[in-house]
């Protein structure tokens, strides 16, 4: 089932939660909605499910406009963060609930419901737990039962709201792999919400990164990590350092010193350079580098991290090196990025004055936030 | 083997002072409840079985007992339904005046029951506001068993509301949403998901309301009319016998009330325990 969201807007008591979000999801895809809390990801999921109604905009299930349909009629499988199992029912009754409440004409016999519940328990790898109560199960088992219950109604789309959020790290990792396998076997269009980027990048076909009620970027995990579209995505996904620079004549400068990074096509003025810790090189014989002073060195499992403060501004960068790099890191170092990305400074178009006024033109018109240029 | 038995009885626990707390509980319960009731039983036991049976099966006594328990059952049942409704409205909806309604519900507790009885009588008497409305239809509320039910319904109103309210408030909204995503109608969600979760609290409220209704005296005697064999309740009959200095008859009626009340409350509690086992998993 293709899901298509058109200019969806939702406001709660005049506080906007979603701003005109559009998104296309292909049948059979596993999609992650990723963002910090308050980014609107859960609201988007609940709108797709029909647990909330949009202020404006529409939602299509295939070609059918589902915007006005109630959650009952949408036939979605929804899994809640805190399981939301029916405590007074056995596992089998929980799974069979969606079938039991159907109209008499569409309702399978009770023996058939029981058989389906057993089949689903096998599918979620909990055979033989039919007569247990939810309170007798562990968190991971409860979430599997919740998923079996959602699958019992043969949903058109499977929606999971932070499905592993309440579980501990080990179970979470295990369930993540298991969900991927299950998705490959059943082929449901699946949308899940998470704030855990590792979960989103590892599990999904495509990731939707959200911030403040807007979609920042939609792409495969590789695209999201390797070519972030906005400063937010770059700093939110993975580790990164931000270095305030200024662009003049297609070249990047820190202070008034060229750092040997080209920024062709970017207008002159302040800009932000983003770089990942493992994309920074330590160099010794290059005049065009970023000069910095080491402030700390620490070791974390297989890597050694060097923290340094850039000359001329207070921003810190982090450099990731192999743990067996035994060089002594002290005092002044010179850095050169291997891969990086420069975004024009949209927030403070004229305030940066590291280079003085002189030959630099400052654009006073505000730049569109998504304007960016990959230079590498 | 004193230590062995004691050892089993007094299991090590992180909660301190079991001995003291248990001793205090027993003493308190004895002083306040068991000794007065014991005296009652003792007094009626002094009657001898034959006398007791004669006094207890006196037609006027039987009529009073039947009326008392039947009216109490009806009033408690009415409150079960409408108490749930009231609790639902108070918990689930935001509306102006919600706090006021919330406070009004407790009024039957605070009001002297005689005042309630007089007010209800004034309303439901054939010349009262409500009584004059139904009088043309040939209905009579005050001075009949219906009036007793009205009075009892009034005084037991808060019990079900107050026991169900906190449980309803703590009910997980996500389970209802889950039921809706699975295709359940609001009605099915209510009967299959919400009601089972509320059942233990409903039964507690029912038992409390029932107990209160059985023992109610002040409000009923004003509205009942107190016609022997028709609208005379058992607690009033006890007072009448006492005024006649017929202590034997009074204790006999009291003892029978005690036995029936205890049996009824025990049954309700057993049902409640069963429902907790059946529906209260994990709560």
From TrEMBL, chain A:
This is Sulfate ABC transporter ATP-binding protein. It comes from the Bacteria. CDD domains: ABC_CysA_sulfate_importer (cd03296). SMART domains: AAA. The keyword Transferase does not apply. GO terms for cellular component: ATP-binding cassette (ABC) transporter complex. It comes from Fulvimarina endophytica. Belongs to the ABC transporter superfamily. It holds the Pfam family ABC_tran. The keyword Translocase applies. SUPFAM superfamilies: P-loop containing nucleoside triphosphate hydrolases. Keywords: ATP-binding, Hydrolase, Nucleotide-binding, Sulfate transport, Translocase, Transport. One of its GO terms (molecular function) is ABC-type sulfate transporter activity.
From TrEMBL, chain B:
It is a multi-pass membrane protein. Keywords: Membrane, Sulfate transport, Transmembrane, Transmembrane helix, Transport. InterPro entries: CysT_permease, MetI-like, MetI-like_sf, Sulph_transpt2. Residues 65-268 form the ABC transmembrane type-1 domain. Pfam families: BPD_transp_1 (PF00528). It is found in: Cell membrane. The complex is composed of two ATP-binding proteins (CysA), two transmembrane proteins (CysT and CysW) and a solute-binding protein (CysP). This is Sulfate transport system permease protein CysT. It comes from Fulvimarina endophytica.
